[in-house]
Automatic annotation (TrEMBL):
SMART domains membership: PBPb
Protein name: Transporter substrate-binding domain-containing protein
A UniProt-annotated Pfam family: SBP_bac_3
Domain of life according to the entry: Bacteria
Alphabetized SUPFAM superfamilies for the sequence: Periplasmic binding protein-like II
Annotated Solute-binding protein family 3/N-terminal domain residues: 13-234
InterPro entries (UniProt xref): Solute-binding_3/MltF_N
Length: 238
């Protein structure tokens, strides 16, 4: 957990949650690290606000941010299903989400309609992509506990198809002892932008201050420096 002290808009310290999702956010030597963590740390430094960052299971951070004041969660994909649930600062990540299968599977997907016919599709139940596909009515989704279970099932051919985004694909595959050369993308169905999500009761003035600070980081090049250090060559959000 990291703590930051200073004068800011929040009367009470902010509680910020993130998850194990490298290279965006993860634990390293007992401390939060990653692209998202560095962006948030710099915003805190520039605003002089008091906050703590804690790496927790996604479901815990998500529920806390829905229900507790002065709470934030990052990085969170901003989707239609989540739009009214949080207040948003960003974007800080752009990613493309696709269906993946083991190389040589012989499977083809050219549309979401095709995806209904490829057998079981494993996705962590708490992910935005699961929510998106569930809203589309796919009957063959299998909600797993987390990405390690998903990738292990793919490795052992217990499911034919999984879902992942291009930004974290390599680290996710490693959870199941797989490499990018072991899989092939079948169909990209979602282009998403990740934000810092705040509890709905968060002061609008704080949201505006964080957004202004992030915009300034993008303008002065400090955001790009962080982004390229963690995701070299990847597209940056506008």
């Amino acid at each position: 957990m990291l703590c930051y002290a200073g004068l800011g808009l929040a009367a009470e310290p902010l509680q910020l949650y993130t998850e194990e999702y490298p290279p965006l956010n993860f634990s390293q030597a007992g401390k939060p690290a990653g692209l998202g963590v560095e962006v948030v740390e710099e915003i805190l430094r520039r605003t002089g606000q008091q906050a703590s960052i804690e790496v927790v299971p996604w479901a815990r951070g998500y529920q806390a941010t829905l229900s507790q004041p002065n709470t934030g969660l990052f990085v969170a994909m901003r989707t239609e299903e989540r739009e009214q649930l949080f207040k948003w600062v960003g974007p800080i990540i752009v990613g493309v989400t696709s269906f993946y299968a083991l190389k040589g599977s012989g499977l083809t997907i050219a549309s979401l309609e095709d995806a209904r016919k490829v057998g079981t599709i494993a996705v962590p139940r708490q992910w935005y992509s699961y929510q998106t596909l569930e809203a589309k009515g796919l009957p063959n989704l299998y909600g797993v506990i987390g990405p390690k279970q998903m990738m292990t099932m793919l490795h052992h051919r217990r499911v034919p198809v999984v879902v992942a985004d291009n930004v974290t694909l390599e680290s996710l595959l490693a959870l199941g002892d797989l490499k990018p050369t072991d899989v092939e993308p079948l169909y990209s169905f979602l282009r998403s932008y990740a934000y810092i999500a705040f509890s709905p009761s968060t002061d609008d003035a704080l949201i505006a201050q964080w957004q202004t600070t992030l915009d300034a980081m993008k303008a002065d090049g400090s955001f790009a420096a962080i982004y390229q250090r963690w995701l070299p060559g990847q597209e940056m959000p506008d």
